[in-house]
Structure formats: structure tokens, C-alpha cells
């Protein structure tokens, strides 16, 4: 739905990791409790097919989106409550993307944002019991290409954690710990409305006020480097996701282009544009 859309000496890190593995007698890489789910996009042009696992367990999951098609793809999951069809989900998503009200049964369920052909991106999130429909919002929506994953099990109380956090609420972002290089970010929606995160380099001396002014003018391109931007899928209030962003030093704009559940303008037009400096 994106429309614009420190380091320690290496040998020390390795030694510490090995020592920990020995002390605890555990595999340092991956716990068996985290399930791995793979979604894949295949095909060419508009004739792409999305595949999803039929079943999953509630709780923490590593979600991998593999784009084997020849075009950009995106995995936006939609969690529905009760029995609803792929047609209803597509209708709800089209409505939401136009700034119209979300159906009551329809919730943004995370996933993976724009992924280039041949790329594979993994995020970690907590799945709740229910049906998750997989959509590719980079292609024309088609209900015959919206596979469902049934998630069963108890309501999960799993919590994700990282020292690097970006919190979203109405209508601002708070970022902590972003550094140059690889970041594992705990993107947490602590608000009541659905949000996503777009982080885009600010051009030159441009400020967040310049970005907002350009957005409101409608015919001026906002002074951000769209090609250098990274983004997340959309999550509802109270949900979070671990995502990996690789950042260069510099100033960035944090933006959200999702609308309220009741409908309305994209949040960036309500001031959800904030600046963060990475060094
Ligand atoms: Cu938002």
C-alpha cells in the first residue's frame, strides 16, 4: 500500500556468540518455537500468482515473501474475523486504499512491503487465530489471486523485542536506536488506527515541513528520495513487526500514507511526517 509511496570488532562478537552457545548448551541460531512461513509470487506481468501456506499456528512467525515474478511485488496480509470471502476482502482493500471506510471484519495483518524481482524478505510478527488473506497490492487486485491461511491455536501473548524501535500512533512516529548499517527494527503500532512506515532520505537541506507543504500542494514532488526509501506492510493498532532496514548515515523522513479505518486522507496529510537522523 506504499503509494509514494557501532560496531564492535568482529572477532569479539564471534567469541561472545560462541561462548554463549557453549554456556547455555543451546543452538544460538533460531529457537524451534518460531515457525517459518513462506509466501511466494510467481509469473509474469499482470499474470502473477501468489501462494500461501494453508495452515499456520498462532504465535510468533517468521514470514518470508519470495518474489519469483518479473515485477515488483508486495505481501499485504489481511486478517478477517468470521467467515468472509476473497471477494469481500478485495472489496474492503479497494475501499481502504481509496480512503473509504474499512469493513468491520477487516484488519491490516502485516506482511512484507515492496519486494523486487528475485528478492526474498523476511519479517517476524505474532499471528492471532483467524483467517489471513494474502494480497499483492503492487498488481491489480483479483479475488482469484488472494489465497488464505487459516491460523489456529490460542490467542498469543508473545511479544517481539529489539533495541531499535519505531513507534507509530495518531499521527506521528517516535524512533529510537536507528544506526547506519543493518537495523532490526521493532515497528510497533501503539495507536488505534492502522499504520505503516516509510523511511525515505530527505533531499539536500529539505525539512519535514517542506515535505508536508509539497504533499498538500498536490503538484509538487515531495523532496524525498523515493528510490532510496524502505517500507513496511500495514499493521493495526496494538500490533508490531520486526523488520530489517539497511540505512546509510543521513536525515530521513518517516511517513505513513494509510487512512483511518473510518476513511479520510492518508495520514501524511494529517501531519504523520517526522524526521530522524541516522549516524
Ligand atoms: Cu498511519
Description:
With 279 residues, this protein is mainly beta. It folds into 2 domains: 34-152, Immunoglobulin-like (Sandwich), CATH 2.60.40; 164-278, Cupredoxins -  blue copper proteins (Immunoglobulin-like). It is built from 3 helices and 17 strands. The protein has helices at residues 10-24, 86-97, 208-217; strands at 35-44, 47-51, 55-57, 59-67, 73-80, 106-115, 120-127, 130-135, 148-152, 164-169, 172-176, 181-189, 198-201, 230-231, 240-247, 250-255, 273-278. The strands form 3 sheets. Strands 2-1-4-7-15-12-10-11 form an 8-stranded mixed β-sheet, with no helix packed on it. It is globular. The two termini are 29 Å apart. 36% of the residues are buried. The model is unreliable at 5-31 (pLDDT under 50). The site of copper (II) ion has 5 residues, from loops.
Topology, element by element:
Elements: H1 10-24, E1 35-44, E2 47-51, E3 55-57, E4 59-67, E5 73-80, H2 86-97, E6 106-115, E7 120-127, E8 130-135, E9 148-152, E10 164-169, E11 172-176, E12 181-189, E13 198-201, H3 208-217, E14 230-231, E15 240-247, E16 250-255, E17 273-278
The protein binds copper (II) ion.
Amino acid at each position: 500500500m506504499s503509494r509514494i509511496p557501532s560496531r564492535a570488532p568482529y572477532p569479539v562478537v564471534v567469541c561472545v556468540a560462541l561462548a554463549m552457545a557453549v554456556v547455555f548448551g543451546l543452538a544460538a541460531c533460531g529457537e524451534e518455537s518460531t515457525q517459518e512461513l513462506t509466501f511466494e509470487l510467481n509469473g509474469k506481468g499482470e499474470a502473477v500468482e501468489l501462494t500461501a501456506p494453508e495452515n499456520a499456528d498462532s504465535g510468533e512467525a517468521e514470514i518470508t515473501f519470495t518474489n519469483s515474478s518479473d515485477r515488483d511485488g508486495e505481501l499485504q496480509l489481511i486478517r478477517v474475523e468470521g467467515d468472509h470471502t476473497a471477494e469481500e476482502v478485495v472489496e474492503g482493500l479497494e475501499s481502504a486504499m481509496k480512503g473509504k471506510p474499512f469493513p468491520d471484519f477487516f484488519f491490516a495483518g502485516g506482511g512484507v512491503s515492496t519486494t523486487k524481482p528475485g528478492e526474498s524478505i523476511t519479517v517476524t510478527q505474532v499471528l492471532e487465530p483467524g483467517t489471513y488473506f494474502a494480497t499483492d497490492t503492487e498488481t491489480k487486485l483479483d479475488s482469484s489471486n488472494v489465497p488464505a491461511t487459516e491460523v489456529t491455536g490460542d490467542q498469543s501473548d508473545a511479544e517481539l523485542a529489539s533495541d531499535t524501535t519505531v513507534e507509530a500512533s495518531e499521527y506521528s512516529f517516535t524512533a529510537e536506536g536507528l544506526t547506519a548499517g543493518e537495523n532490526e527494527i521493532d515497528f510497533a503500532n501503539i495507536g488505534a488506527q492502522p499504520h505503516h512506515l516509510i523511511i525515505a532520505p530527505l533531499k539536500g537541506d529539505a525539512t519535514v515541513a517542506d515535505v508536508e507543504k509539497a504533499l498538500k500542494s498536490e503538484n509538487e514532488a515531495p523532496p524525498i528520495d523515493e528510490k532510496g526509501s524502505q517500507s513496511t506492510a500495514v499493521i493495526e493498532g496494538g500490533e508490531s513487526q520486526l523488520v530489517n532496514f539497511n540505512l546509510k548515515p543521513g536525515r530521513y523522513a518517516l511517513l505513513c500514507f494509510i487512512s483511518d479505518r473510518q476513511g479520510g486522507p492518508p495520514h501524511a496529510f494529517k501531519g504523520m511526517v517526522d524526521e530522524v537522523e541516522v549516524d
